[in-house]
Amino acid sequence: QSALTQPASVSGSPGQSITISCTGTSNDVGGYNWVSWYRQYPGEAPKLMIYDVTNRPSGISSRFSGSKSGNTASLTISGLQPDDEADYYCSSFTPINNIGVFGGGTRLTVL
Amino acid sequence: EVQLVESGGGLVQPGGSLRLSCAASGFTFRSHWMSWVRQAPGKGLEWVATIKEDGSIKYYVESMKGRFTISRDNAENSLYLQINSLRAEDTAVYYCATVSYYKAEHWGQGILVTVSS
To answer: Which positions in chain B touch A99 (Cβ < 8 Å)?
Structure first.
């Protein structure tokens, strides 16, 4: 099962908005609304930021939003802050293994 | 507060075996699907396996089938991952996580497994 495709890196200035894309196929991202996004700081465990394409877990800032169009899901972070600098991973359910598949990860740099 | 604490990692020789454990607390363990996710040094996340609440259904990523076995003991609030015939490419931090509808909601801090002679 191939990993979902994410850009290796994105960057933005404080206060700006950025979008991270996550491209799969009709067998994963495009076929199901079970897309989630995770933030990971160096040396720490990942943290769930978005689930079911658009939903935020309790306690996650509204600056984080998710969307999907066709086989591509997106994570948008508005009002960038220095502590948004981290690695971000998308994941989608796939019936191929009944578990899921991750994207390769995107390093967000806040300039 | 949900707590997941992994243990059992360390340095293992190629071909050896290891059993990772994940002690759960702060939630009703027997009511949650659970998963293992791994991350090789400097690399991305990779699903390993998932197990149903009662242990009756187990799913593995294709590349993990045969050498990896996920199990659980609901009486002990514990999740396990048995890894046999360890290879250098199994070197990674292994995380346990609660899973609900294909999202990993809560994660442990991870445990490092290093396969080297």
So the answer is: 35, 47, 49-50, 59-61, 102
